[in-house]
Amino acid sequence: MSTPAAEHGPADGIAARARGLTKAYGSGETTVLALDSVDVDIARGRFTAVMGPSGSGKSTLMHCLAGLDTVSAGQVWLGDTEITGLKDRELTRLRRDRVGFMFQSFNLIPTLNALENITLPMDIAGKKPDQEWLDRVIDTLGLRERLKHRPAQLSGGQQQRVACARALASRPELIFADEPTGNLDSRAGLEVLGFLREAVDGLGQTVVMVTHDPGAAAHSDLVLFLADGRIVDEMPRPTAEAVLERMKRFDVIRAQSDPERD
């Protein structure tokens, strides 16, 4: 199922796309097909959520689009650059320069303060941050008074905000967020989702978020639903209630196909 960006309102092009994206693990009778010939377009300047039952392939899709995992077949582009077939060094440089990442675990360096954690990827690359942009990100995320604090001195929500700022600091073409609220309480989770929303609306970023939470998905512009390695549905302008109803249908279908499933 293809998801042309033009169907979801104006957007300045496509940030990432895949055609015939297939990912298989194992071989022979033990082969597991995680992604099955997926076609997808990620609209630039939009917030896209990816949802589906456990084992549906949503994290695998994100990892393949981000160049964190190889593909078994098909093609993936970041902007106009096809990343399938790139050598490891080229892929590493592309991820470093053009992609930002947020994960469920904050992945902050405990010996560095918040500012040092934010600028670490650019420091490693030997690049100076755009100070005006960096200041804007820091102020948007409300971190100005926490820059000298180390991770142990920050709350979970503040640590995830630092991780969000790190993903935004280099002004990447695309931010991938894998369950970014999974380790946060509801209040901190709402804060981070609000910041991701602001990154899209106020800072012009593009965000792709994998989540299992209908409330989190409701912050996006478009939800893509995966089942058995395929995109089976999509929902523009989602609400938490509508997403929850759609996810319940997955459970009904799976229960009907496998009566012994718990």
From TrEMBL:
Pfam families to which the protein is assigned, alphabetical: ABC_tran
Top-rank taxon, per record: Bacteria
An example molecular function term from Gene Ontology annotations: ATP binding
UniProt xrefs under SMART domains: AAA
InterPro entries: AAA+_ATPase, ABC_transporter-like_ATP-bd, ABC_transpr_LolD-like, MacB-like_ATP-bd, P-loop_NTPase
Listed CDD domains: ABC_MJ0796_LolCDE_FtsE (cd03255)
Alphabetical keyword list: ATP-binding, Nucleotide-binding, Transport
Coiled-coil parts of chain: none
Domain spans labelled ABC transporter: 16-253
PANTHER family: ABC TRANSPORTER RELATED, IMPORT ATP-BINDING PROTEIN
Record protein name field: ABC transporter ATP-binding protein
UniProt source species: Streptomyces composti
